[in-house]
Amino acid sequence: MRKTDVIAGLSVAGLMLPEAVAYAGIAGLAPQQAILAAIVGALVYSAVGRSRFAIVSPTSSSAAILAASLGTLTVDPAVKIALATITVALVGITFLAASAARLGGLTGFVSRPVLRGFAFGLAITIILKQMPLVFGVAPQASNVFGLVAGLLAEMGAWNWISIATGATALLLLLALRRLPMIPAAFVVLAAGIAASILFDLPGHHVATVGLIDLSIAMPSLPHIPYPMLMGLAELVIPLVLILLAESWGTMRALALSHGDRIEPNRELAALGMANLGSALVQGLPVGAGFSAGSASEAAGTKTRAAGAIAAIGLAVLMLAGVRLIAHLPQPVLAAVVIAALSHALNPQPIVRLWRLGRDQYVAIGAAIGVLALGVLNGMLFAILLSIAALVRRLASPQLVRLGRLGSSHNFVDLARHPEASAIPGVAIWRPAEPLFFANAEAVLALITDHQAADRTITTVIVSLEESFDVDSTAVDALIEFDARLRINGARLLLARVRDGVRDLLTAAGSHDLAARSSYSVDDAVASLSQEASQ
What is the mean pLDDT of residues 74-98? Predict the structure, then answer.
């Protein structure tokens, strides 16, 4: 076991405690349910999962969905706990079923720009949600913009001692970053407890954690009406989606930053087993939260052992110091979460996309979507935005005219290579995107317009190197394009045509066009010379 993993694990344990307390409050359940879920979830994932940075524990988004849904089903505390336990178990079973069905490939629809924007927006969201704990107020808001407005509206009620406590803790955390061998979160939590006792912070209306009951009761199932049980089905799917979005976004974003590889179906199974473990201790739904994962990365985690150490450290902390933790100020808890996410506010990944001139709007849309719509809806919005950008690019007719590079067999873009030369009487065009139903007619119509504007062109060669396959619309468009060129007195040749496309042309009855298809541009040009010499 590496020393860096021990330090990283203890640092993360110091973050898991405040997060668990906060998320239990969001879910409307007892703190011990979140703490036990964090311990079990992190242990199970470290044994089954493959991301070295992921810390599987309760998350803010899943806690919010659980609270909203359970609130519509019951107000009885015993029934609420039972429904939450059943729900978490069903979430675990759903993840396992998705893994068995090999549905992990669906995560491929989440592109890297989406992940970068998602991570940036999620960091801002979580940090802003800690502000009420720091300011000592509780504004009601459905999104972060409403939260900010609510905080400003209640400025007169701000508790300045609470603010000073949180600010001091945050500054101490940031200062201790220069000493990586010290578990900063643990140190600050201990200092916060000491300050709470010495300066009687509760007497100054600074909120504290309070006594936490860590006793584990066997899961019990009181009488639950059948319609209420059926209502859980509507609750499970949103929870699975939000945990998948947040967990995969966290895992893949951190893996990409370090060149790690993770396998989606394996991660689905790990999340399923972690949630089943959480259900056994009547815990909250668990997933790979971004703040804990970022804290693990920042602490220098090298292996998955750090997650297990974090779980054990949290368990020891609670067992040995549960009475002391009751004095822990809530602003200090918030400061630990904020410090863990501060490095995720680096806009450089999005700035890099802007410099590349690619996908920057997708990343920004993902960030804004998370802020305005929440984690799940924000992720879905970003995915749709990514797909829309792809379709727009594919559907936009873009053409490149090719010329021969010197006396070689290579044909390159004439606009980029002035040393290349066009073949007299021949126009060689290469569509920049694969031909399919959304762009085939527009692309070929554009070539027709170019040919009609230059009557010296008697032969048109279309290179299909980007088209690995074509649909029936594209095949019909090629056949109609061939007929239009004949009317204009020109001839069509196809180059870089794969066998599957030739077969489609033959099956469509265009045997002649299939015979005028070559495997390379050079072969197509050479066939013209052979015809001229005959």
Answer: 84
Q: Residue 46 in contact with residue 308, Cβ under 8 Å?
A: yes
Crossing angle, helix 290-298 and helix 330-342, to 10 degrees? 70
Helix axes 264-280, 226-258, angle to 10 degrees: 130
pLDDT at 103 > cutoff 70: yes
CA pair distance 351, 324, nearest whole angstrom: 45
Polymer length of the chain: 534
Name the H helices within 219-329: 226-258, 264-280, 290-298, 305-325
Q: Which of 210, 217, 186, 216 is nearest to 323 (CA)?
A: 210
CA distances from 151 to 158, 160, 204, 434 (A): 9, 14, 20, 51
More confident residue, 142 or 190: 190
Ramachandran quadrant class, 425 (left: phi over 0; alpha: psi -120 to 50; beta: rest): left
DSSP state of 170: H
- In this structure, are residues 360 and 113 in contact, taking their beta carbons and an 8 Å threshold? yes
- What is the DSSP secondary-structure string of 1-66? --HHHHHHHHHHHHHHHHHHHHHHHHHTS-HHHHHHHHHHHHHHHHHH---SS--EEE-HHHHHHH
pLDDT digits (tens, 9 = 90+) for 23-74: 787 777 888 888 999 999 999 999 999 999 999 999 877 887 787 667 666 5
CB 253 within 8 Å of CB 294: no
List strand residue ranges (DSSP E) for 283-410, in order: 286-288, 399-405
pTM of the predicted model as reported, rounded to 2 decimal places = 0.66
Alpha-carbon 17 to chain mean position = 25
The three-class DSSP label of residue 287 is: strand
Please check the confidence at residue 511 and state whether its pLDDT lies above 70. yes
Q: Which residues lie below 8 Å from residue 254, measured CB to CB, with a gap of 6+?
A: 51, 53, 54, 260, 293, 294, 297
Q: Any bridge partners for residue 57, and if so which?
A: 287
CB 367 within 8 A of CB 374: no
* C-alpha distances out from residue 306 to 7, 55, 309, Å: 8, 9, 5
- What gap in Å lies between CA 246 and CA 88, rounded to an integer? 16
Q: Strand, helix or coil at 68?
A: helix
pLDDT score recorded for residue 246: 78
The Cα-based distances of 360 to 247, 363, 397, 433 in angstroms read 23, 5, 22, 20
108 by Cβ neighbours in 10 Å (0-12 / 13-18 / 19+) ranks as exposed
DSSP conformation class of 180:
T
Token pair for 290: 């971004």
**Residue 109 confidence class, pLDDT cut points 50, 70, 90:** low
The amino acid that residue 351 corresponds to is V
* N- to C-terminal Cα separation, the chain: 78
Say which amino acid occupies 240: V
Helix (H) or strand (E) holding 430: strand 426-431
